[in-house]
Design a protein that fits this description.
binds glutamic acid; Rossmann fold; alpha/beta; 14 helices; seven-stranded mixed β-sheet
Length: 419
């Protein structure tokens, strides 16, 4: 952690947010100390046979941040720049996310340092299995339940659940969520993160008197969350998506981007850049567009002191984890921009993951409508709890979300006699 300033170290940011919340809740010293650190973390190195016959050693992490409210839950990222502090921050955010949605779960996160774009399908499979072999003893359906995250997907979850099942000698679907439908997945898990964010956006727009049917939207990041957000915003509200971007660049179209066309283009070329009927702009220009809604669906620390002054949107939908730095947060609050903070806004994913665990345990599967209804109910309730807390304490939406979530975790810790 040393040498990193708050900007480049997401865990420093996560700790600063916990401290700010502890001040508001007037938490005592020992409670604060527990909340500021992960309860357990595992660092593993594991060998993987590459396609050329050589063996490479990969490094992975799994952080179980806090399990006061139940088994830890959270995704696994495959990223070339993964660090233990990123995983720690993400595991902390999972803790608050699960508590905010009132799920009987704690928070965790995992990561493997690797670049999936440079790996073959077989290498990816062997890394997935190697990672599960390395952490298998520490996870389980009632212990710690991984799921997809950045650069991991249902196929990877399928390999992982297969590997875990062979370790324990029986099928254990409940150990991992975000699985393919035909292997114990839940209907509605695929677009759950974006859909949950759209339910929260609907509530926010209603509150602010914004007609989403006439609203324009820019989307930063075009992975699972951003891509579904584009089509759902159009289908659910009739909003006009005027710009999207990925790591290679941004494209705009004043009259509305043709979402099926951009999806097809991305499928073919792995990027949204140069899609027919759009104009190329820079990623910074996308953030500065005069739109009603800005969706942040890329990586951590995207809106910072450097670019926050340019942001003109009225609502920010944070589908990524940690996309806004604390300094930028203050500026957005001063500018009166309504931020739907990450661990509220993107909680749809883990909420449907929880539904998936329940269905796995009962071996009885719901239909998609039932999942959507249950998700809507939980997201709407959580949004209003955060809004009420923001009004009660006169604080921004992120701090308000912390207040609600951390109070629940602290209550569980007190009941257990930890603090
Ligand atoms: N990776 C997702 C998140 O950050 C989902 C986690 C899960 O389903 O456990 O919320």
């Amino acid at each position: 952690m040393s040498g990193n300033n708050n900007h480049s170290n997401p865990f420093k940011i996560a700790q600063q947010q916990i401290n700010d919340c502890a001040d508001i809740l007037k938490l005592n010293h020992s409670t604060r100390e527990v909340l500021l650190r992960p309860m357990r973390e595992f660092h593993v190195h594991f060998p993987v046979r590459m396609d050329d016959g050589t063996t490479r050693i990969f490094q992975g992490f799994r952080v179980q941040y806090n399990d006061a409210k139940g088994p830890t839950k959270g995704g696994i990222r495959f990223h070339p720049e993964e660090t233990i502090d990123t995983v720690r921050a993400l595991a902390a955010w999972m803790t608050w996310k699960c508590a905010l949605l009132d799920l009987p779960l704690g928070g965790g996160k995992g990561g493997v340092i690797c670049n999936p774009k440079e790996l073959s399908r077989f290498e990816l499979e062997r890394i997935s299995r190697g990672y599960i072999k390395a952490i298998g003893a520490f996870i389980g359906p009632d212990k710690d339940i991984p799921a997809p995250d950045v650069y991991t997907n249902p196929q990877i979850m399928a390999w992982m659940v297969d590997e875990y099942s062979s370790i324990v000698g029986k099928n254990q679907f409940g150990v991992i969520t975000g699985k393919p439908l035909s292997l114990g997945g839940s209907p509605g898990r695929g677009d759950a993160t974006a859909r949950g964010g759209m339910y929260a956006l609907r509530e926010a727009a209603q509150r602010l008197g914004i007609d989403l049917g006439k609203a324009t939207m820019a989307i930063q990041g075009y992975g699972n969350a951003g891509c579904y957000a584009a089509s759902l915003a159009e289908a659910m509200f009739g909003s006009k998506v005027v710009a999207v971007c990925d790591s290679r660049g941004a494209v705009t179209c004043r009259n509305g981007i043709c979402i099926p066309r951009v999806n097809e283009h991305k499928q073919k070329t792995s990027s949204v850049v140069s899609c027919e009927g759009t104009e190329c702009v820079s990623n910074d220009e996308l953030l500065a567009l005069d739109v009603d809604v800005l969706v942040l669906a890329a990586l951590e620390s995207s809106v910072t002191e450097r670019n926050v002054d340019q942001v003109k949107a009225r609502i920010i939908v944070e589908l990524a984890n940690g996309p806004t730095t604390p300094e930028a947060d203050e500026v957005l609050h001063r500018k009166g921009i309504h931020v739907i903070p990450d661990f509220l806004c993107n909680a749809g994913g883990v909420t449907v993951s929880y539904f998936e665990m329940v269905q796995n345990a009962y071996m009885y599967y719901w239909d998609e409508n039932e999942v959507h209804e249950k998700l809507d109910k939980r997201m709407t309730k959580a949004y209003h709890e955060v809004l009420n807390s923001a009004e009660k304490y006169a604080i921004n939406m992120r701090k308000a979300a912390y207040v609600v979530a951390v109070a629940r975790v602290v209550e569980a810790m007190k009941l257990r006699g930890w603090v």
